[in-house]
Amino acid sequence: MPNILVLNAIHPDGIARLEAEPGYAVTRPVPFTPEVLSAHLRQAEGIITRGTRIDRDLLRQAPRLRFVCRHGVGYDNVDVPALTERGITLAITPEANAASVAEHALMLMLALSRRIVGFNADVRRGDWVVPAQSRTSDLAGCAVLLLGFGRIGSRVARLCSGFGMRVLVHDPYVPDNTVSGLGFEPAPDLASALGIADIVSLHCPSDATTRGMVDAGFLAAMKPGALLVNTARGTLVDEAALEAALRAGHLAGAGLDVVHTEPMTSAIPLLALDSVIVTPHVAASTRQGLHRMALAAAQNTIDFFAGRLNPGAIVRG
Ligand SMILES: NC(=O)c1ccc[n+]([C@@H]2O[C@H](COP(=O)([O-])OP(=O)(O)OC[C@H]3O[C@@H](n4cnc5c(N)ncnc54)[C@H](O)[C@@H]3O)[C@@H](O)[C@H]2O)c1
Q1: Taking residues 200-223, what's their average pLDDT?
Q2: Which domain covers residue 147, as residue numbers?
Q3: Residue to probe by mutation, ligand 1, list 149, 173, 203, 213, most atoms within 8 Å of CB
Q4: Which pTM was predicted?
Q5: Which spans in the chain are helix H?
Q6: Mean of the pLDDT values across residues 44-62?
Q7: Which of 155, 233, 260, 292 is catalytic?
Q8: Are residues 64 and 135 in the same domain?
Q9: What residue ranges line ligand 1, CB within 6 angstroms?
């Protein structure tokens, strides 16, 4: 009888899916005191987590744990080597949030290009001003550079193409002919692609090889007046370097769904800039996205304990 601990609030249909499974004991998320959480961890064989860190301290309290499912696709809140040492399987919910995040990236591109936030604030203040010199621009005809051509990046490519944009793709792990076969331009030389793109959008994971990759050098190589969009992970970006590039006028704006330290408990310097739009890591959290992720996390859990987990969902098995 699998004992499943759901650490954070998920769509109720995901809980219902687990509870409908014969023999399942499901502990629903409540504000756990450390003592109550500890008692649940002692029993848990499976865990579903959204934001809670799965680290050595938590694992020490969970001697029976065999399976962890991350509700989402990024698993930088999970200590994978610690799971590996214990032989615990880690799964994610691939595809469940890809459409939601891809749309959010497009939304940030549009919001920055059309200065939506500023115009909306002007009108609310009573300033109905149509500037003589336009400071907005079309997406059509712009070049966008996508860093990462996985589930989300490849969808963003299709959406950008639909807007009439030139789409360049930099992904060291995807063959150039895969990118060109889908009608996009492979950009193996990152530095020269950065000099071409009007918009750079990040869609790669945050790991030891990518953390801090958007540093002063990366930003200096970007085309003057370009925009940066980040719906991937805040740790990819050196925020001080980004602030400097924006203040210097080298970049025209940044749209960030993710920041270095989340949750943001006090205002970061980037928030002082009108050219920056920040959303609180909600790209995946549409009604449909949350529903799909909860159902996928529940299904992965059921499939793991039935011995038929989809290999495509497994990070480590
Ligand atoms: N904001 C949100 O709510 C939200 C939701 C879901 C996913 N994400 C983030 O979006 C990112 C992409 O998710 P996905 O589902 O598309 O993942 P994915 O694994 O399908 O794709 C990631 C791609 O990045 C590529 N990549 C790795 N290193 C790279 C590098 N140095 N330069 C360029 N490309 C590189 C990989 O080859 C892969 O194709 C992840 O960081 C994930 O954490 C954010």
Answers
A1: 97
A2: 98-278
A3: 203
A4: 0.96
A5: 12-19, 34-43, 56-60, 80-86, 98-113, 116-124, 151-162, 176-181, 190-196, 216-221, 239-247, 287-305
A6: 96
A7: 233
A8: no
A9: 72-74, 97-98, 101, 147-153, 170-174, 203-206, 209-210, 231-233, 257-258, 281, 283-284
